[in-house]
Amino acid sequence: MKKKLLTFLMGTALVMGLAACGGGDKDTGKDTGTDTASNDPGAKIFDQKCSSCHGGDLTGGMGPNLTKVGSKYSKDEILNILANGKGQMPAKVVTGDDANQVAEWLAAKK
Ligand code: HEC
Q1: CA 67/CA 76 separation, integer angstroms
Q2: Spacing, Cα 63 to ligand 1 middle (Å)
Q3: What separation in Å is there between the alpha carbon of 78 and the centre of ligand 1?
Q4: For the CA atoms of the chain, what is the radius of gyration?
Q5: Tell me: the pLDDT tens digits for 34-93?
Q6: Residue 71 near ligand 1, beta carbon < 6 Å
């Protein structure tokens, strides 16, 4: 009986250890729901498709800062950029509903 309990405890410790190790992969696209930004579908799409160039916090990287892009462009203008590309930015990174959601989300960034 005692031995069984010990095995159980060790098993639990092992599982907890593994869970702790797996906690570091925040930006692999696996969403744990802890990130507040991920509640918005537009934010999620941005995170997956745009953040590599524009930065996870929209402050820019290879692409420009988009934190105030909504005061520069309307949703339609952003949709147009997404459909046609702009300078170094490729066209059709996202299309359809995804484009619509991310454009709406960005247009609100003022
Ligand atoms: C391969 C890198 C790359 C990716 C991926 C990318 N962009 Fe861009 N984006 C750029 C670059 C570079 C520019 C600047 C283009 C220029 O003005 O010459 C830009 C410009 C923009 C602009 C216009 C900004 C301005 O002030 O004129 C918007 C809006 C934008 N991107 C949105 C997005 C969205 C939304 C996504 C994801 C669906 C995305 N981008 C994905 C590189 C990227």
Answers
A1: 17
A2: 5
A3: 9
A4: 21
A5: 445 557 899 999 999 999 999 999 999 999 999 999 999 999 999 999 999 999 999 999
A6: no
